[in-house]
Amino acid sequence: MDVRLDALDRKILSELQRDADQSLDDIARAVGSSKTPVWNRVRKMREAGVIRQTTALLDAEALGLEACFFVLIRTSEHEEEWQRRFLEALNARPEVLEAHRLAGDIDYILKVLVPNARAYDRFYQALISEVRIHNVTALLSMEEIKSTTALPLEF
Which positions fall inside the HTH asnC-type domain (predicted)? Predict the structure, then answer.
């Protein structure tokens, strides 16, 4: 997608990433514009797909989700049917927050958020019962040092 964003668009996006719940008046004030041009730019960025959705960020610990595992998966299966079943299995599990296909020795990495190690084991047992996996390594995150949903806008 080739969308040209100017400095004002980037300022607006930065404000939305900081707090999408703020009013258009507050955003306009913060970026040095008025409400109508800000609204028009936001609308255009939504239509262009730059702004995909607006959502609430929840506190995982407050919800009892205290164990974050990074799951490294190696597979000897690379057929289309296996990939389809694997994708279906991941999409059916809300505890999988992210899944990435990688280049290198590891085929996939998952970010899995669960209440505890027992819950992770239930996730693991269910996953390997649905799709054949050659090797799984689970790494427990001891401490989250940085986490953000804000994309870098200055480049």
Answer: 5-66
Bridge-based pairing state of the strands 96-101 and 108-114: antiparallel
Per-residue pLDDT of the chain (155 residues; tens, 9 = 90+): 578 999 999 999 999 999 999 999 999 999 999 999 999 999 999 999 999 999 999 999 999 999 999 999 999 988 999 999 999 999 999 999 999 999 999 999 999 999 999 999 999 999 999 999 999 999 999 999 999 999 999 87
pTM of the model: 0.88
CATH code that applies to domain 7-47: 1.10.10.10
Instruction: Say if CB 70 and CB 110 are below 8 A apart.
Output: yes
Range(s) of the chain covered by CATH 1.10.10.10? 7-47
